[in-house]
Write a structure and sequence with these properties.
Blueprint (H helix, E strand, L loop, with lengths): L1 H15 L20 H4 L7 H7 L3 H9 L14 H9 L1 H20 L8 E5 L9 H4 L11 H10 L6 H13 L2 E9 L3 H10 L7 E5 L7 H14 L3 E7 L14 E3 L9
Parallel strand pairs: 1-2, 1-4, 2-3, 4-5
Helix pairs in contact: 5-6, 6-9
Protein name: Stem 28 kDa glycoprotein
Keywords: Signal
Organism: Urochloa decumbens
Length: about 270
């Protein structure tokens, strides 16, 4: 059945040609909810006609981003906007996130806890516990330059949805007796909105909510590794650490094991 759907979708893409948006509008899906367009994309050359025309192989670009090979970029390539949008809004992003969380849960379930309540798991906020897709869908999925004011206003609305995969990990860790710690690069002036948003989406019972000081200029790696060091100095054992940016995970102490969620929309250096 899946093969038949794949063939039908492939024919639909071919009939749409390479000059319009039709190739991005195929809606046939597999049983797991992942649009077939993601399976077809390599057959039509990486990134389709957008990638060929702009000499930007969008899936290879995303691979370089996720492996931290490509760094210090400001926006996604303009011709990859539809590619990234299709990835984020289709089933592929959720499928990749699910794969990461499945491994995180399997790891957590294998741990032998001390029983003293000192084991913690560090969570990032943006594109980790909370998803800003409602915002980025209106701003080119990262193709537009980042606007501090516009995004800040969005954060203050405190209505970003939870990433379901992360919520599943969060609840499982609590059931196992591992305490969540929320560590975000958001500034202190966003504390009230962040706490409100987390609570409204079901992120309750965490041990700490740590935000970046309002006026301190510090690199993200330095800030987050410094906060993790403070946790260890206070007697906590960081058994896990999850985030969407490499700056969430790099810098000692990283935690016993780190997990990188996908995010091709923006880069934090």
């Amino acid at each position: 059945m899946a093969v038949a759907k794949l063939l039908a979708a492939f024919l639909a893409v071919l009939s749409a040609g390479t000059g319009g948006a039709g190739a991005w509008d195929v809606k046939l899906e597999l049983d797991d909810g992942m649009p077939l367009i993601h399976m077809l994309r390599p057959l039509l050359s990486t990134g389709g006609h957008l990638g060929r025309k702009g000499r930007v192989p969008c899936d290879s670009w995303r691979f370089a981003v996720e492996t931290n090979t490509l760094r210090d970029w400001k926006t996604i390539p303009a011709r990859c906007e539809k590619y990234v949008g299709n990835y984020m809004m289709g089933g592929h992003y959720r499928s990749d996130s699910r794969a990461v969380v499945n491994e995180a849960i399997a790891y957590a379930e294998s741990l032998k806890l001390s029983g003293n309540g000192k084991e913690v798991w560090v969570f990032d906020v943006d594109e980790t516990t909370l998803s800003n897709l409602p915002y980025y869908a209106k701003h080119g999925f990262g193709a537009e330059p980042y606007n501090w004011t516009t995004f800040g206003n969005y954060v203050q609305e405190a209505n970003a949805p939870a990433l379901p995969e992360t919520m599943r990990l969060y609840k499982r860790l609590q059931a196992l007796g591992i305490k969540p710690v929320i560590l975000t690069g958001r500034r202190e002036d966003k504390r009230e909105a962040t706490a409100k948003n987390l609570a409204s989406e079901g992120y309750t019972g965490y041990e700490k909510l740590l935000l970046k000081p309002q006026d301190v200029k510090v690199h993200s790696v330095e800030f987050k590794s410094g906060e993790r060091k403070k946790l260890e100095d206070a007697g906590y054992v960081i058994v896990g650490n999850i985030g969407d940016q490499w700056t969430d995970l790099l810098g000692e102490p990283e935690g016993a094991r780190t997990f990188k969620l996908p995010d091709p929309m923006y880069y934090i250096g």
